[in-house]
Amino acid sequence: MKPIPMPARLLAAVLLSVPATQGMAATLRLNQFDAWTRADADGNGGLTREEAHRMPRLARHFDAIDGNGDGVITGAEVRAWRQATRRSQRAAKELAGSKGLDEILRIADGDGDGALSRAEFSQGLPRFARRFERLDLDHDASLSRAELGLWLARLRGARRSKQP
Fold first, then answer.
1. Which pLDDT tens digit goes with each residue over 17-29?
2. Reduced to 3 states, what is the DSSP secondary structure of residue 142?
3. pLDDT in tens, 123-139
């Protein structure tokens, strides 16, 4: 029996793994749909705060997901929240990586006063919103250039210490 060349074996492995990957993605979507259906006790297609407790991640972020504030989250609101979360994570990676203080202020400082209020910080950098209290060293309900500079320095220092 003639051995199968390595490139042919690699190609076969890739081609055989694609359907498995697609099947796993379909299973994940089905599992999410099943979980949503089980959580939706009244069957109206949306989840109240109480119903969302059956899906812990959604329950933790209920207020952020409930875009219209009606006390019910819908599939569309969850999709919009996930997209916004992904965008903010990408933006946060970029900011923490190479962008400086001026870039953060350009993105998030809506009123142009050189400092970030809680609302500006939460809207411009939602991934970091829960850190506002820790970053506001003088507790004046805004982040000054100095406070933001210290935060960036800590982020960069932590990043450098993880590099080999």
1. 555 445 545 554 5
2. strand
3. 888 888 888 888 888 88
Residue holding tokens 């492995």? 13
Distance, CA of 78 to CA of 76 (rounded, Å): 5
Cα-based distances in Å from 132 to 16, 110, 116, 122, 135: 48, 17, 10, 8, 5
* Segments making up each domain of the chain, as ranges: 45-88, 99-162
| CATH class as words, domain 99-162 | mainly alpha
Q: What distances in angstroms separate CA 65 from CA 22, 40, 58, 70, 112, one per listed residue?
A: 28, 16, 8, 11, 28
Q: What are phi and psi of 105, to 5 degrees?
A: -65, -40
Contact of 121 with 108, CB cutoff 8 Å? yes
